[in-house]
Specification:
By secondary structure, the chain is an alpha/beta fold. It is built from 13 helices and 15 strands. The strands form four sheets. Strands 2-9-8-7-6-3-4-5 form an eight-stranded mixed beta sheet. A three-stranded antiparallel beta sheet has the order 11-15-14, covered by helices on one side. It has a two-stranded parallel sheet with strand order 1-13.
């Protein structure tokens, strides 16, 4: 037989967060201690899924085996079970202040990632583009080309705390643009967008007839008393699809529970929604048992938030101080999620990927190179996940400090 050739569109699919782990595992197998600061998976560290939510799925499965009327081993509605969709709708109205949301405006997916992928695939035609934040979560830049769409990144403004720059949006939009992605709080920068930024985004989207993809998976993880403003809550005319899930807020990424909320105040998304529904029906349904956690989580489960935010805030503070104390490195203070995106000055011709790989080889500290998330031309960054315990973070940051000094000396480079 001849060699099987994969589709050319897969050549553009990358995912820096996990791609770099391959080398880390090789080094770990050789005996090098790896300090994992690369992936936003809270249960890997010292964060636990609330016990009440873990028990719900076990109880549902046990009841199914005992012949209960509700059998979670069956397929369910392709949009998701009604109680889950109703809970998401209640949370959207009461907590996120998005008006006129009912269960019919919600669909449940296998993680927010599936919801995002479905909405991309139902919207974009070959040659069309979706505007994505740079830096931003690489799922978007990895999936848009799969559906023959073009990437159209817009730079966030590091000088204003990674807020969105309207002049930059106008610079990159074109007549093939179908949507704009806004990640709030942002991964990888930890930025939380101001009301002014959100209002400007909506004005821009209305002007250019765009759908807003509002990725708000970290909406309950805000520090320093900051509040999260749901983009859809301010929209009177612009269609907004809000993505959320239990992964981050409720410490359960591996359970794969996500959703999307359609806010369509002008009634312009009916055909698009039906296209998404076709895709939902074609994949049958998202995992059934886990959906029974959504209502108890959103309606009742709050006991873990105080401890989670205390840990995250303390670890953010250590991260912010220690990184900014390293010559050549500067870091905007994150306000949400659990990521930092420090900037590093590098010698001419050296990339942030080279720096990160050499850091890994020499110290075992695993971070992700900034180019994997997108960044302004001429700048270099890396992403840090500050979920690990304080002693691990301190050890890692001291190692970064010592390594960076040696790296500069080797290249005869003095950061200015």
């Amino acid at each position: 037989m001849k060699k099987i050739i994969p589709a050319e569109r897969t050549n553009k699919v990358t995912y820096a967060i996990r791609d770099i782990v391959v080398r880390a595992k090789e080094l770990e197998a050789k005996g090098l201690e790896i300090l994992y600061l690369n992936i936003g998976d809270p249960p890997v560290y010292d964060f636990e899924t609330p016990a009440s939510l873990r028990n719900i799925v076990a109880d549902k499965i046990r009841q199914s085996h005992q012949g209960a009327t509700l059998n979670v081993s069956t397929y369910c509605d392709s949009m998701g079970i009604k109680s889950a969709r109703e809970a998401v709708a209640r949370d959207a109205v009461k907590v996120k202040n998005i008006p006129n949301i009912t269960a019919d405006n919600v669909f449940i997916t296998s993680g927010a990632s599936e919801a995002i992928t479905l909405c991309i695939s139902a919207l974009i035609n070959p040659g069309e583009n979706i505007m994505t934040p740079s830096p931003g979560y690489p799922l978007y830049s990895g999936q848009i080309p799969v559906y023959h769409g073009e990437l159209n990144p817009y730079n966030l403004n590091e000088e204003t705390g990674w807020q969105i720059d309207m002049e930059e949006l106008e610079r990159v939009v074109n007549d093939k643009t179908k949507a704009i992605v806004v990640i709030n709080p942002n991964n990888p920068t930890g930025a939380n967008y101001s009301k002014e930024s959100i209002e400007n985004i909506l004005k821009f989207a209305e002007k250019h007839n765009l759908v807003v993809f509002a990725d708000e998976i970290y909406d309950k993880l805000l520090m320093d008393g900051k509040n999260h403003i749901a983009i859809a809550s301010l929209s009177k005319n612009v269609p907004v699809i809000t993505f959320g899930g239990l992964s981050k807020n409720y410490i359960m990424p591996g359970w794969r529970v996500g959703w999307a909320i359609f806010h369509d105040p002008s009634g312009v998304m009916s055909d698009y929604r039906e296209a998404v529904n076709k895709l939902l029906r074609a994949r049958l349904c998202s995992p059934h048992p886990q959906q029974h956690m959504i209502a108890p989580a959103l309606d009742e489960t709050t006991e873990h938030f105080a401890e989670v935010m205390d840990k995250i805030t303390r670890r953010r503070d250590i991260t912010y101080k220690m990184l900014n104390d390293i010559p050549g490195i500067s870091c905007v203070k994150p306000e949400g999620a659990f990521y930092a995106f420090p900037k590093i000055k590098l010698p001419k011709g050296v990339t942030d990927k080279e720096y990160v790989l050499e850091l890994l080889e020499e110290t075992g500290v695993l971070v992700v190179f900034g180019s994997g998330f997108g960044q302004k031309d001429g700048t270099h960054h890396f992403r840090i996940v500050f979920l690990p315990q304080e002693k691990i973070l301190i050890k890692a940051y001291n190692a970064i400090k010592d390594f960076t000094a040696k790296f500069y000396a080797k290249h005869n480079f003095t950061p200015v």
